[in-house]
Amino acid sequence: MTQDASEAHHRRLTEVRPRLVSFALMHLRDLSRAEDAVQEALAAALEKDGSFAGRSGYETWVFGILKYKILDAMRAQKRQGTWQPLEDEGDDEAIERQFQQNGRWQKDARPSSWGEPEAAFENEHFWRVFDACMIALPDSAARVFSLRELMGLSTEDICRELGIKENNCWVILHRARLRLRACIEKGWLKETAS
Amino acid sequence: MMMCKEATRLMSLKQDRPLRFQERLSLRLHLSMCGACRECNRQFALLHKAGQHKSPASDDTDEARSDS
Predict the structure, then answer these.
(1) Does the distance separating the beta carbons of A149 and B47 come in below 8 Å?
(2) pLDDT at site B58
(3) Of the candidates A32, A22, A29, the residue with the CA atom closest to the CA atom of residue A66
(4) Is there a contact between A154 and B40 if contact means CB atoms under 8 Å apart?
(5) For A54-75, what is each residue's pLDDT tens digit?
(6) Which of A64, A111, A174 is nearest residue B43 as measured by Cβ atoms?
(7) Mean pLDDT lowest for which of A8-17, A58-67, A75-84?
(8) Secondary structure (3-state) at A150
(9) I need a surface site. Which of A42, A53, A109, B29 has the fewest CB within 10 A?
(10) Residue limits of the Putative zinc-finger domain (chain B) (predicted)?
(11) What is the predicted pLDDT for the residue at A3?
(12) Residue of A149, A155, A166 to mutate when probing chain B, most B C-beta within 10 A
């Protein structure tokens, strides 16, 4: 690597690293494991093609490698027994609170408009709330949601990976989305309005 | 008549696999009458897009989704 390339590499890394760590953290739920996975991904990227570092498409490429490293780490967590995929985390109550007994929305839980997605995505506060709400999700709900919506795996693949039934996957995702929407609405909209 | 809670189940499912004809029909009917659920439907779609924003590229082809 020339000095210029090395500097460009370093700059890019500084920019992209926090995003990689945040992405890994949502899946692995443990900061040191997330940082390890990112370190491994960056090392693998450098080993494969160090000259790629300063070029466009680098970020996409590193994220692609990180996704494999995350799945490896998740398998290791399962193997070591530090994490067991749970089909039922008993989080029914948080969901039930949003609905009346007859299945209609509770008055104070009725969804309001969040405006245009693009406007929300440009708002830093939205992302702070989003991240906080992801961390607040029950463990399995957060991991299944991350695999589905952040990593983009199909529910079929997720179930194979985690050893749970697809039907359970859909139940977990339904609950995760309801929890997330309630949490984000509370943290984001209410604060923006006040 | 399907109630809101069941409607949210279908809205969520729609993000993960194509709905069956009957499911699509019941959801569409419910959404046509319920503003709160229409918002919830938009929120689930926004959550999906937010997930994609977290990494620069996604393999998700969106084929499981349809606008119903």
Answers:
(1) yes
(2) 45
(3) A22
(4) no
(5) 566 778 888 999 999 999 999 9
(6) A111
(7) A8-17
(8) helix
(9) B29
(10) 4-38
(11) 67
(12) A149
pLDDT, tens digit, 9 for 90 and up, residues A103-148: 999 999 999 999 999 999 999 999 999 999 999 999 889 999 999 9
Measured CA to CA, the distance from residue A70 to residue A63 in angstroms comes to: 10
Q: Looking up tokens 């390890």, which residue turns up?
A: A36
CA distance A72 to A168: 23
CATH annotation of A92-193: 1.10.10.10
**pTM score, whole prediction:** 0.87
Question: Taking a C-beta distance cutoff of 8 angstroms, is the pair A189, A123 a contact?
Answer: no
Q: Would the CB atoms of B40 and A181 count as touching at under 8 Å?
A: yes
In DSSP terms, A105 is beta-bridged to A99
CB contact under 8 A, A173 and B51: no
Q: CB pairs below 8 Å between A and B: how many? A: 100
Distance, CA of A53 to CA of A49 (rounded, Å): 8
